[in-house]
Amino acid sequence: MSDFIKDFRDSANELRHLKCLTIAAMLTALSIVIGFFQIPIGQMLYIRFDFIAIGMIGYLYGPVVSGLCACVSDLLRIVLVPTNNGSFFIGMTITAVLAGMVYGIAFYRRKLGLIRVLLTMLFIGVFLHILLNTYWLSIMYGTPFWTLLPQRIVKNAISIPVNTILFFALSNPLSIACRKLNLVSVPTKQQM
């Protein structure tokens, strides 16, 4: 448990470094741009790729920084391209922050193995995207939770393996490049 708290403290301390702020800002901007590219797979269902940048922020700078960047990314995306008639719903932003924090908790100072990436994507997919986002959507649109749930399960059954493969395939070369460019401040812990 002390490692868990230490990771949060260390992640918050990362915000004191200009290198962290610069790289996190660039990856947040990249997340916004990548977020515009999505694959529709049904009504109100699509696969997005912005998780890659937020996951890399979590790997580099931990849960506090990745949670903040996920929040900024979500809010700026709403300002730049308002959807749903320009409506803002705080629940979706809360989910984005939680997902960013989960990436930071799972990846910060750790080796990015396939099992770790898969478990992280499963956790985010099941608890945040299927359960929590379905709840938010039921509030936003007045549609019963149980009516939305089957579509959300199908969407995540498709996106979880895709996200796992994409993130794992991209994270290994990116993590090597980050170490070579001295963007990772502390050696990584061993995989679980």
Automatic annotation (TrEMBL):
InterPro entries: ECF_S_folate_fam, ECF_trnsprt_substrate-spec. The keyword Oxidoreductase does not apply. It comes from the Bacteria. The keyword Transmembrane applies. Keywords: Membrane, Transmembrane, Transmembrane helix. This is Folate family ECF transporter S component. The chain crosses the membrane at residues 20-39, 51-76, 88-108, 114-132, 153-170.
